[in-house]
Amino acid sequence: MNLASLGLTAEQERVYRYFLRVPHADLDAAAEELGVHHLSSVIDRLKTLGIIDVSLASVSPAKAVDLLIRRRVEQTSRELNQLSAAWDIVRDLAEEQRSGRPVELVERIEGVENVNRRIREFSSAKEVMNIANVVRALPPDDEKVRRFRKRLAAGLVSRTLVSEKTLSLPGWLESAREGHALGDLCRVSPEWSRQMLIISRSVAFVQIDPADRTVGALLIRQPGTVAILVDMFEGMWARARELNEPELTSIERQVLQSLALHDKDETAARALNISVRKFRTHVAELMERLGAGNRFQAALLAKERGWL
């Protein structure tokens, strides 16, 4: 059996297997033996996947397969969501049939009530992405809360990004934790963005005036524009911190920066005026926090989160 079903090319698999057998091999010798003249670029890709570390040693087969399976499951999930979103065209066609005119790709909706009414038209959606700069905590018995929790129980995939200032609002954190436990995943983002709701990766509601949500929103159906907004959300989500995750301390930020600047622990520790043992302890804690299998991967994940 090969690893093609998990996303590796035949060439990438050959390189992984080679360094599994001959860890820390000389690059020139490996390139000659494998007949791969662009070996460095292949190795960079395998490092990004986390299955070869910075010392040119392959991680254990069990760990490599686990990483590749996780990546493949995430990719398959995204593809299924895209296929599910394709059913939204039925609603657009039905609207065209009813109204006798083309469905607008970008539509301006005036007023909060009108925006909420249009959002309710998509109540059967299976995925939502939400950027909410300020969130008002609603009581558990509120009708909106009950409807939303019923949708979560029915399989709705929901992710919400909130701003740092939201954490100080009365009752909000407790409410968010309850929702998080039910499946409304929530992260805290240091980045500012106007309020936005993306439904099934095919429709987006974007707040018109960033300072006044009562003005209304743009309803966007243009596929290319919605795809850009989805990418923006995914980037912000990757850089945001978990609801219960503390912010980076000053020394943790310094350790990450020093890790990126220096090749050796001794040099990095000296630059921070701390012991090598203390530096390595910080690095190990950061790797665990990032879910990184090696330091190269930790640096990549830290950069994705905006920590570097």
From TrEMBL:
Q: Superkingdom of this entry's organism?
A: Bacteria
Q: Where is the HTH luxR-type domain?
A: 245-302
What SUPFAM superfamilies is this protein classified in? C-terminal effector domain of the bipartite response regulators
> What is this protein identified as?
HTH luxR-type domain-containing protein
Query: Species name for this entry?
Result: Nonomuraea recticatena
